[in-house]
């Protein structure tokens, strides 16, 4: 600034020093105040998310999440077979149309049970595999309905303290072994490793899936919780893979082109009704070149119609309608003998091009729904056309089992960041981890552990690493994570999509080992730790184990909470001794309800 005579003038700084300093002081004070509010609110939120904060235990490193000791009460004895999302007590709230009431309907948060599900009176440690395939303790699954209603079909029979499983079924009176022998004659691909994964809709007590285990085929046995009482629980008690489910109004929780074979043995699914929408779902989950096997009405109607309370004309009409519908969605009759008919899903794109004609039914799906979308996704009356660019998804293009297990699937490149290289790295990583797990938990790899769940897998690496052990693994992919389940199926393993903010589709006490890898780190922003752990307790068998691989941030909080569930846990180092990650080896104790004798 210049004076009027042109000489520089010294500015008077004292005129603005005071207000600026005052402003700085006020701003600092305000930010301190607001910061205090924000921080206290954030601390309150974190504390509430894990049930209140406490001091760090003396002598240990500081862990960000700490919780007070908590003790969960016992549920009443009526909850011994509680399945929260398929609870018969809530059926009346939902429609009967297409049996939609048997689908998943989870209770709202204010109805969630915060208690430990008790075992039945007289519960014993399950009989070990392979003996368990043929017998189980009656007190572990104390339900007589199937025994009384299906005794003439030899599903099971009660002798003393046990249920025995003679391998009978509605459509295999000579035993499941003879039934599958005939099936193998009709489908040679069952013998040479081409067919590895299967799904059995309406599985009964899973005798078909149990027999296929001895033939190198891994089956997901599927049945709803209905008047048959505990079909899936019987299957899992026997050590056979199974899950609660029904084809109704929602897609099954599997990606498209997953299974090598699908089976229905008089499963009472009305395949030709509602525009064939149930068959369209089988078509979606069956890979190109895969097989659909049907025994029961209307197959072999010429001989069987008298026993079906119908007329031969009606059964012929039903069979013709079924054949026409299958042809329209690109199935061809592959083979047929006696009570078994086999259709094959075509892999030739020329058939699917015909679906472009708007006058044809069913039409091609073009509503924008992802083919692999399968968590509460409504069924569509249209054909999900296989991607013609995916050449190696076809059954005859996959390596045969067991080479298939470690070959990088084509669909790994569909996963963000996925590649053959990342798949091989993951495969090698889990071999090292499984070796370390067996040092920490010697029961892994023995007959003490049969039913295993990997609660948040990527490519099924843990399951692949223990494939030679006497166990099977249900691989679970989160509905909120990248959908890698197609890769799991392409390598010849099984699994399902699930959201761990909800209860899993199984009965209590059905798994010997639960494994999770960073589940709480990935899902704690959505799912409250307490409810995930209570769900783990529900589905884990008494004396069963959990391997919890988690960040150090959550490890101590998890260990504290499991004490309130009557688990014993110890903290171990990872195979590389990484400080930021720990392994909890936990065991659930066997206890009995105070209400029981």
Short description:
InterPro entries: Put_SAM_MeTrfase, SAM-dependent_MTases_sf. GO terms for molecular function: methyltransferase activity. With 597 residues, this protein is an alpha/beta fold.
Strand order of the largest sheet: 6-5-4-7-8-10-9
**Intertermini distance:** 99 Å
Tell me what portion of residues adopts beta-strand conformation: 15-25%
Rg from alpha-carbon coordinates: 29 Å
Number of helices: 15
Helices and strands: which structural class?
alpha/beta
Number of strands: 19
Organism: Solanum bulbocastanum
Enzyme class: transferase
GO cellular component, one term: membrane
Membrane topology: Single-pass type II membrane protein
Describe the structure.
Residues 1-18 and 32-63 have low confidence and may be disordered. Helix 6 links the parallel strand 7 (259-265) and strand 8. The chain is of the alpha/beta class. The longest helix is centred in the first third of the chain and has 36 residues, at 14-49. The N and C termini lie far apart (99 Å). The protein contains 15 helices and 19 strands. A 7-stranded mixed sheet has the order 6-5-4-7-8-10-9, with helices on both faces. It holds the Pfam family Methyltransf_29.
Highlighted features:
alpha/beta, 19 strands, 18% strand, Put_SAM_MeTrfase, methyltransferase, transmembrane, signal-anchor
Reconstruct the topology from this structure:
Blueprint: H1 14-49, E1 135-137, H2 145-149, E2 157-159, E3 162-164, H3 176-186, E4 197-201, H4 207-213, E5 218-223, H5 231-238, E6 242-244, E7 259-265, H6 277-285, E8 286-295, H7 301-304, H8 312-328, E9 331-337, E10 340-345, H9 349-353, E11 363-364, E12 382-383, H10 420-440, E13 451-454, H11 461-465, E14 472-478, H12 485-490, E15 495-498, E16 511-517, H13 519-523, H14 529-539, E17 540-551, H15 552-563, E18 567-573, E19 581-588
Parallel strand pairs: 4-5, 4-7, 5-6, 7-8, 11-12, 13-14, 13-16, 14-15, 16-17
Antiparallel strand pairs: 1-3, 2-3, 8-10, 9-10, 17-19, 18-19
């Amino acid at each position: 600034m210049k004076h009027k005579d042109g000489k520089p003038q010294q500015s008077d700084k004292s005129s603005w020093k005071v207000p600026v300093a005052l402003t700085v002081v006020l701003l600092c004070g305000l930010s301190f105040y607001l910061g205090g509010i924000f921080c206290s609110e954030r601390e309150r939120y974190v504390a509430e998310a894990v049930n209140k904060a406490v001091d760090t235990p003396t002598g240990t490193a500081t862990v960000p999440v700490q919780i007070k000791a908590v003790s969960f009460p016992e549920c009443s004895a009526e909850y011994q077979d509680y399945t929260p999302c398929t609870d018969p007590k809530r059926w009346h709230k939902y429609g009967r149309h297409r049996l939609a009431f048997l689908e998943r309907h989870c209770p709202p948060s204010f109805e969630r049970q915060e208690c430990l599900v008790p075992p039945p009176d007289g519960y014993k440690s399950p009989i070990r595999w392979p003996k368990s395939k043929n017998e189980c303790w009656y007190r572990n699954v104390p339900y007589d309905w199937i025994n009384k209603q299906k005794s003439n079909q030899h599903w099971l029979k009660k002798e003393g303290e046990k249920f025995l499983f003679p391998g009978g079924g509605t459509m295999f009176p000579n035993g499941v072994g003879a039934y599958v022998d005939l099936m193998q004659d009709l489908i040679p691909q069952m013998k040479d490793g081409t067919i590895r994964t299967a799904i059995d809709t309406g599985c009964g007590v899973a005798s078909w899936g149990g027999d296929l285990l001895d033939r190198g085929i891994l089956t997901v046995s599927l049945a709803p919780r209905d008047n048959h009482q505990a079909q899936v629980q019987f299957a899992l008690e026997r050590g056979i893979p199974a899950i609660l489910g029904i084809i109704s109004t929602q897609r099954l929780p599997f990606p498209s082109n997953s299974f090598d074979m699908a089976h229905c043995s008089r499963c009472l699914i009305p395949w030709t009704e509602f525009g064939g929408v149930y068959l369209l779902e089988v078509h979606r989950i069956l890979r190109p070149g895969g097989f659909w096997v049907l025994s029961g009405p209307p197959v072999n109607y010429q001989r069987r119609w008298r026993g079906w309370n119908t007329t031969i004309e009606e059964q012929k009409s039903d069979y013709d309608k079924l054949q026409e519908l299958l042809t329209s969605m690109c199935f061809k009759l592959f083979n047929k003998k006696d009570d078994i008919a086999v259709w094959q899903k075509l892999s030739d794109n020329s058939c699917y091009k015909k679906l472009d004609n708007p006058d044809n039914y069913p039409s091609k799906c073009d509503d924008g729904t992802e083919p692999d979308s399968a968590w509460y996704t409504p069924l569509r009356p249209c054909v999900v056309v296989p991607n013609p660019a995916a050449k190696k998804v076809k059954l005859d293009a996959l390596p045969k089992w067991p080479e298939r297990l470690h070959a990088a699937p084509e669909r790994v490149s569909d996963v963000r960041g996925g590649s053959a290289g990342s798949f091989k790295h993951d495969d090698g990583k889990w071999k090292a981890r499984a070796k370390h797990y067996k040092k920490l938990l010697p029961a892994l790899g023995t007959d003490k552990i049969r039913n295993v769940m990997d609660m948040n897998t990527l490519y099924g690496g843990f399951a692949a690493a223990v494939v030679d052990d006497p166990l099977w693994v249900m691989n679970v992919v989160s509905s909120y994570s990248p959908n890698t389940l197609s890769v799991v199926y392409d390598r010849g393993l099984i699994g399902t999509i699930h959201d761990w903010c909800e209860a899993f589709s199984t009965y209590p006490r059905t798994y010997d080992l639960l494994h999770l890898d960073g589940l709480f780190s990935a899902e704690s922003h959505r799912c409250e730790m307490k409810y995930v752990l209570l769900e783990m307790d529900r589905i884990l068998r008494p004396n069963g184990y959990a391997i919890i691989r988690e960040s150090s941030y959550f490890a101590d909080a998890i260990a504290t909470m499991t004490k309130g569930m009557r688990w014993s846990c110890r903290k171990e180092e990872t195979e590389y001794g990484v400080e930021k990650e720990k392994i909890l080896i936990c065991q659930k104790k066997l206890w009995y309800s105070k209400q029981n004798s």
